[in-house]
């Protein structure tokens, strides 16, 4: 079974390993996809090196929150959205990671001749719901959010891990933590806010959405890293559809979307590619 998922993973993500595409190019392309989903005014976008990027100063006055903004897709999206002059708020698991990410975004802006001091971070640990529940109080300085990009996530953790709340880590980080965060940030969301939930085509690894304890607290002998990851990505999609439906019933003008960013050569990708490659080689030799 593990070998099967490795083969599927390789087929699913081969494009990110193509020799003609560097890791930075793959990240930039995926970030452009995410940025295109975040922006709802195409006339304010332009092509930079063939990638979708907001025009300078086109997002002034907009506040964009990006969870998991310290690496990968979140960081690259922050760089491009900051070009538009938006107030960018990244979330980071630690102060050190947050400061480093802000520094990288500012360097990117300088390299592109852009001045935007409105880039900051908030420490957020989605694996601890008690910390998430403190957000309304600790984010008092954030008065309005125009875009909430729920991007943070973990992928196919090899061994079952439980959070301090007792839930399986993938489902809490990828879905439950964002569910609670979005609910708590509702009072701060603009009347025409856009909520972007980063999902994945890997939702297909889940044949159907579980609704029993096996989703939240799978037993060790019932835990499959990729099936569980697929469950979390399917949960992202279902959450998106239901939040959009409920917002319309409530008369809100929100736009709630989910997206598959493509196969991206992030740090998580390389960890799993190397693991699957080694497993495949050893399996062939046994």
TrEMBL record:
This is Uncharacterized protein. The lineage of its organism: Eukaryota, Sar, Stramenopiles, Ochrophyta, Bacillariophyta. InterPro entries: NAD(P)-bd_dom_sf, SDR_fam, TAT_signal. One of its GO terms (molecular function) is oxidoreductase activity. PROSITE patterns: TAT. Belongs to the short-chain dehydrogenases/reductases (SDR) family. Keywords: Oxidoreductase, Signal. Residues 1-18 form the signal peptide.
